[in-house]
C-alpha cells in the first residue's frame, strides 16, 4: 500500500474503519446493540434502566446515530402517552456475530489484561 494514500482526504473519508467502526465502536453503541440482542424490543426507559450509567441525552444521541446508520429501528405508536420501541434491524443483527466474538475475546482476556495493567502501573520505569 502506498503510504501517501493514507494522507489522502478521499481515502480517509471512505475508509471503512474510520467511517463505520468509529460510529459503532464507542462503548454506548456496543452496549445498546448487545442489550437489544438480549431483549429484542425495548422502550427508551427500559434501555436506560438496563444501561444505568448512560445519561438520557447520550442514550438519545446514540440511538439516533444507530438508527441513522440502519442498525436500530425506531417504531412510534400514535397513542397518549407516546410509545416508542427500539429493535435491531437486519443490518444490526448481522453485526452481532462480530460483536459477540469481540465480547467473548474480552471476557477471555480480561483477567490477563487487568493483571498487565496492574504490573505496568507499579513499574517505576514508566
TrEMBL record:
<keyword id="KW-0805">Transcription regulation</keyword>
<keyword id="KW-0804">Transcription</keyword>
<dbReference type="InterPro" id="IPR036390">
    <property type="entry name" value="WH_DNA-bd_sf"/>
</dbReference>
<dbReference type="InterPro" id="IPR036388">
    <property type="entry name" value="WH-like_DNA-bd_sf"/>
</dbReference>
<dbReference type="Pfam" id="PF01638">
    <property type="entry name" value="HxlR"/>
</dbReference>
<keyword id="KW-0238">DNA-binding</keyword>
<dbReference type="InterPro" id="IPR002577">
    <property type="entry name" value="HTH_HxlR"/>
</dbReference>
<protein>
    <submittedName>
        <fullName>Helix-turn-helix transcriptional regulator</fullName>
    </submittedName>
</protein>
<feature type="domain" description="HTH hxlR-type">
    <location>
        <begin position="15"/>
        <end position="114"/>
    </location>
</feature>
Amino acid at each position: 500500500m502506498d503510504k501517501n494514500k493514507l494522507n489522502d482526504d478521499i481515502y480517509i473519508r471512505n475508509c471503512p474503519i474510520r467511517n463505520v467502526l468509529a460510529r459503532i465502536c464507542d462503548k454506548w453503541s456496543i452496549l445498546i446493540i448487545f442489550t437489544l440482542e438480549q431483549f429484542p424490543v425495548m422502550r427508551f426507559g427500559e434501555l436506560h434502566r438496563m444501561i444505568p450509567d448512560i445519561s438520557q441525552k447520550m442514550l438519545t444521541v446514540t440511538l439516533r446515530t444507530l438508527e441513522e446508520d440502519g442498525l436500530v429501528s425506531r417504531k412510534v405508536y400514535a397513542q397518549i402517552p407516546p410509545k416508542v420501541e427500539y429493535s435491531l434491524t437486519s443490518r444490526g443483527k448481522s453485526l452481532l456475530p462480530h460483536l459477540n466474538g469481540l465480547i467473548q475475546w474480552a471476557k477471555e482476556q480480561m483477567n490477563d489484561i487487568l493483571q498487565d495493567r496492574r504490573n505496568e502501573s507499579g513499574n517505576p520505569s514508566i
